[in-house]
Amino acid sequence: MDYSVAAAEHLNTMLSHFKSEIISQMLKHFKGEKFILAFLSDGGVLIPSELSAEMGVSSARVAVVLRNLEAKGLVTRETDKKDRRKVLVSITEAGRIKASSEITDAKCKIEQVFREMGEDNTREFIRTIELFLEISSKLEKE
Fold first, then answer.
1. Mean pLDDT comparison of 49-53, 89-93, 132-136, highest-scoring range
2. Which of 22, 48, 80, 130 has the most CB atoms lying inside 10 A of its own CB?
3. Per the domain annotation, does 122 fall within a domain?
4. What is the value of pTM for the model shown?
C-alpha cells in the first residue's frame, strides 16, 4: 500500500464531505458556541484561556463567542473574587438545556448514519477511528 497516496485520497475525500450538511452540523459541535456550551455543561467554572486552549483558538475568538452566549443568557461571566484579573465563566440553566438539546441532536444524526451502515460496519468504523485517534495522539506527543 502506498500510504502517501492513501493519505492524500483520504484527505481529499474528507474535505469534500465537510461540505455536506450532516458533516457540517457535526463539526459545529467541535467549535464555537456549541463546543463551549457542551464543555461547560460538564460542570464547573472555567477561565477563558482554558476554553481557548481546549478549542485551539485565540482568546479573542473565545471572547467573541462568550459575549454572544452571555447576550443570549446561556453563560455568565464574573470577576474572580480571589484574583480580580481573572474572569470566571459558567453555564446558566438555559445554557445547560440548550447544550443538552444540541448533544441529543448530534447523537440522533450519528445514530441515523450508524443504522444505515449496519452493525458490523459501525463496529469496524468505531474500532478504526479509535485506533486512528490513538496513533494520532501518540504522534502529536513525539
1. 89-93
2. 48
3. yes
4. 0.70
